[in-house]
Design a protein that fits this description.
This protein is α/β, with parallel strands linked by helices and 509 residues long. The chain has 2 domains: 294 residues, FAD/NAD(P)-binding domain (3-Layer(bba) Sandwich), CATH 3.50.50.60; 148 residues, FAD/NAD(P)-binding domain (3-Layer(bba) Sandwich). The chain is built from 15 helices and 20 strands. The strands form 5 sheets. Strands 1, 2, 3, 4, 5, 6, 17 and 18 form an 8-stranded mixed sheet that branches. The protein is globular and about 70 Å long. The structure holds NADP nicotinamide-adenine-dinucleotide phosphate. The site of NADP nicotinamide-adenine-dinucleotide phosphate has 24 residues, from helix 4. NADP nicotinamide-adenine-dinucleotide phosphate binds next to helix 4.
């Protein structure tokens, strides 16, 4: 429960205070768009980096690139930063931005409805109702944990928690623990658990491809250079960016280019695992890149440990004391860790956003699949912008790059609305349709469609509605300027007097 009370009107309402919401707030402020609020249901900034505190949590994109271009951090300790460092970075950037006075923590947006007559969003929250000219979602695609639909899972009598809701109070020392899932989260958790638990069962449905993690501490000299010669840090960032971009043709056009990565992954297995049976179990039967490529030097050695079992038999049910597989074997455990991912293709926030005619975005997407224009705006949902919307995700590079691209696009949209006094804008239906038809055409033949795996990139219709299928610099170019000709616009805008926040000039001394 929060002690904040919300009412009145704001020009811009941002939902979520992760990388996306914070970037939006900082840039709105920079543009002089000071009449905004950021609603955050948690009690701190950070989003997914605040929530994912499991042991071993770290970023698998180098921090030099996985950080804001406008807030370089010379103090990264390692090439792939651990979660606490990333969370501290986000907190520091937020503090230094001077925008935190417009963040409302502990507030959940319940519902947002487009008011056709008033041309604004009516938003209800658990701290009161307000209206907003634009609604900007920074809720993210990896915020709502997905629990597996396994018979009896609720009946387990021991402790159980999702990877994104880690319970630090549970002492795992010497315990019998099971981890369900072998995705990006699980492969970071497993080696850490293996160090302390008595016995660990890892339940694998599909083997992931895991390449070595070329991690290292930055030297004192490098950090000195980052601090005093910002050009050096920019050079690192640029080199990492282009190195990552090299994956794109392998994923989208020329599978043979992925052969070196696949060889690296096979070498990673061969180095750590000698047992042929285990080797066979961990070797994927689909093309590398079809699912997210994982990086770890510690995962395979952990699986090869005597007190760790990789279980590949299908889980039949969970009992109060353990997990039963399809062959009837019950493995008893004390603690169950569920590392089964997030709601990605059915973004939960979409069910709370109602556009023209009152239809929720969730309903629209349930009918036709998740789709937007440039991953940011949606026909039928005027003045709604979504950061990390459909087809903006990446399998190879930094989401912060994509977020900054979208933030630039939204800023330009807002500047256009101000300049031309538009009350409302939404992408034209035909433009959005063509845009998505082109995206889906480009998906054909990519490793995500033809790589021989099922993944969370694909929705129930088998359409890839999560990933961007081109180079990230193409997305950057497409979002560099707001293309008003692709939009239906309404105007002129009526000026508001009942605002909730004040510009610095308006705040009494
Ligand atoms: P995930 O990649 O979706 O993996 C979920 C795992 O759970 C998969 O192995 C999946 O198997 C398994 N699973 C799901 N339902 C199951 C069921 N009913 N029975 C048995 N197994 C089941 O989730 P995640 O590992 O949390 O990662 C999600 C995303 O978060 C990543 O792709 C990445 O984008 C991000 N992430 C990033 C980092 C980072 O370092 N930057 C770290 C962690 C996570 P199948 O493969 O068979 O579906």
């Amino acid at each position: 429960m929060t002690d904040t009370t919300l009412s009145g009107h704001v020009d811009h309402l941002v939902v979520g205070a992760g990388f996306a919401g914070l970037a939006m707030a900082i840039k709105l402020d920079e543009d002089g768009e000071r009449d905004f609020l950021v609603l955050e249901k948690g009690h701190d900034v950070g989003g997914t980096w605040r929530d994912n505190t499991y042991p071993g949590a770290a970023c698998d994109v180098p921090s030099q690139l996985y950080s804001y271009s406008f807030a370089p951090n010379p103090e990264w300790s390692m090439s792939f930063s651990p979660q606490p460092e990333i969370q501290s970075y986000i907190q520091r950037v937020a503090q230094e931005s001077g925008t935190l006075d417009r963040f409302r923590f502990g507030v959940t947006m319940l519902d947002a409805r487009w008011d056709e007559r008033a041309q604004h969003w009516q938003v209800s929250t658990d701290a009161g109702d307000l209206t907003a000219t634009t609604l900007i979602s920074g809720a993210g695609g990896l915020s709502e944990p997905r629990l597996p639909d396994i018979e009896g899972i609720g009946s387990f009598a021991g402790q159980t928690f999702h990877s994104a809701r880690w319970d630090d109070d549970v002492d795992l020392t010497g315990k019998r623990v099971a981890v369900i899932g072998t995705g990006a989260s699980a492969i970071q958790i497993v080696p850490e658990l293996a160090k302390v638990v008595g016995h660990l069962d890892v339940y694998q449905r599909t083997a992931p491809w895991v390449i070595p993690r070329n991690d290292r501490h930055y030297t004192a000299l490098e950090r000195f250079a980052f601090r005093h010669l910002p050009g050096i840090q920019r050079l690192y960032r640029t080199a990492i960016y282009w190195g990552r971009e090299c994956y794109v043709p392998a994923f989208t056009k020329e599978p043979r280019l992925a052969a070196p990565a696949q060889a690296l992954a096979l070498g990673n297995i061969a180095r750590a695992i000698k047992d042929p049976e285990l080797k066979a179990k961990v070797t994927p039967d689909y093309r590398i890149g079809c699912k997210r490529i994982l990086i770890s030097n510690a995962y395979y050695p952990a699986l090869a440990s005597d007190h760790v079992d990789l279980v590949t038999d299908r889980i039949a049910r969970v009992t109060p004391t353990g997990i039963v597989t399809a062959d009837g074997t019950e493995r008893e455990i004390d603690v169950l860790v569920v590392a089964t991912g997030f709601h990605t293709t059915d973004q939960p926030i979409s069910h709370h956003i109602h556009g023209r005619g009152g239809r929720s975005l969730g309903e629209t997407w349930a009918r036709n699949g998740m789709a937007a224009y440039k991953g940011t705006t949606v026909h039928g949902y005027p003045n709604f912008f979504q950061i990390v919307g459909p087809n903006v995700g990446l399998g190879h590079s930094s989401m912060v790059f994509m977020i900054e691209s979208q933030v630039a696009y939204i800023r330009d949209a807002i500047a256009t609305m101000r300049r031309d006094r538009y009350a409302a804008l939404e992408p034209r239906a035909d433009v959005q349709e063509r845009y998505n038809a082109d995206l889906q055409d480009r998906m054909e033949g990519t490793v995500w469609s033809a790589g021989g795996c099922a993944s969370w990139y694909l929705d129930d219709h088998g359409r890839n509605t999560t990933l961007w299928p081109r180079a990230t610099f193409t997305f950057r170019r497409q979002t560099s300027a707001f293309d008003v000709q692709a939009y239906d616009v309404e105007g002129p805008r009526t000026d508001r007097t009942d605002r909730t926040t004040q510009t610095p000039e308006e705040i009494p001394a």
